[in-house]
Design a protein that fits this description.
5 helices, mainly alpha, elongated
């Protein structure tokens, strides 16, 4: 018989490298719902999986509300309308990330050009 994961509040913060404030906020907006025993909170496998999805969604650039929708879909796998909604969210975010990447490439090119110009001007000056 395998032992069930059960993390304390402090362990959950450490495992996911989040602040206590962040973890409390995710609870407050109902992204997480730990078990409560008195004043203690315990996070089981469901909450650990949800936290992984929350952090993954944040990394992808989704808003917390979009992540909430994603978690609803995750909890009810297989329904066509939900999967269509998720695909739409993913497509929108992919377009936004591609736009940001193109913008970053232009910015990097501009900065390299400016740096090269400054270096060339510096090299023309006498050392002193």
């Amino acid at each position: 018989m395998s032992e069930t994961i059960r993390l304390t509040f402090k362990e959950m913060c450490a495992k996911f490298e989040v602040t206590p404030r962040t973890l409390r906020y995710y609870e407050y907006i109902e992204l997480l719902a730990p078990e409560k025993e008195g004043r203690s909170r315990f996070y089981g496998p469901r909450e650990v999986a949800r936290m992984k999805l929350i952090l993954r969604g944040r990394r992808f650039g989704f808003s917390l509300e979009e992540i909430r929708q994603w978690l609803l879909i995750y909890g009810k796998k297989g329904e066509r309308d939900q999967l269509e909604a998720w695909l739409g969210m993913a497509d929108r975010q992919l377009l936004e990330l591609e736009r940001q990447r193109a913008e970053l490439e232009v910015t990097i090119t501009d900065l390299r050009t400016l740096r090269e110009t400054a270096a060339a001007e510096r090299d023309k000056l006498p050392e002193g």
